[in-house]
Amino acid sequence: MLKLFEYNWQVRKEWFDWCRTVSEEELMKRRIGGIGYILPTLYHIVATEYGWICGGIQNKAIEIPPFAEVASLQQIQDFSARCHVELAPFVYNWNDSLEDRIMIDITDEGEREAHKYGEVMRHVIAHEIHHIGQLSIWSREIGKEPVTANLIGRRLFDI
Amino acid sequence: MLKLFEYNWQVRKEWFDWCRTVSEEELMKRRIGGIGYILPTLYHIVATEYGWICGGIQNKAIEIPPFAEVASLQQIQDFSARCHVELAPFVYNWNDSLEDRIMIDITDEGEREAHKYGEVMRHVIAHEIHHIGQLSIWSREIGKEPVTANLIGRRLFDI
To answer: What keywords tag this UniProt record (chains A, B) (predicted)?
Structure first.
């Protein structure tokens, strides 16, 4: 589980770096599909991971700033770093005994839904990779090479 | 590990169904980013999973047909099904003792690279989710709702 989170965190860092090579206008330009903009996509990735792990599984009282309050690259990267400090210990301490524990989620429609921790963790992993795939298309639309999505070659695994 | 493969297989099946609601022309229209076309993206996902798991990890003599030989939705879905029969047993029999085993890959440049099985498996998982994220953008460009990427809500986990 941890390795896929580490992959996502490394890729996210590289997308923040990529964003520094692009104008602010491009980062906030309306695009087709997904969240519709590059910067809000990165915000959404951070907020979703934080919301599910700290707010959901750990059931902490968390506060997720609205996008407007962190609407710059630096502020979103700072938001990501703050969330990371809070949620990374849970991910690093993950073990198989947590797989089947249950959390209760209140959906936007006010319904209570039960999810296994293992399901939530994989949801968060897939969620980030999916949205990063969308960024890679928008990157090519801008005429720029996207961050590589390859997991192999990132030295996440020692040999 | 298995759950993320099951997620990918379920999502892939839904994209094949989605493709049936779209003209052949749209499936083969040149697009910006990724593999550049919808149908070749699905082919690429199948070939990559099969190549790494059966050809790479299991070191079987496999044959991957060039795209031109399976260049229709039905043929790619059949190709996917044939590969699935071959590779699914390995995924279902996955266990932690396989994590650190080593496979040798010969890169396109002819170099030998060693990878842990666990790294390859996660590479394959992330690879498919990434390309599916790209399809979701192209789907909106066509004006169609994409297949949901949510992992939660797919009943992959019993409660």
So the answer is: Metal-binding
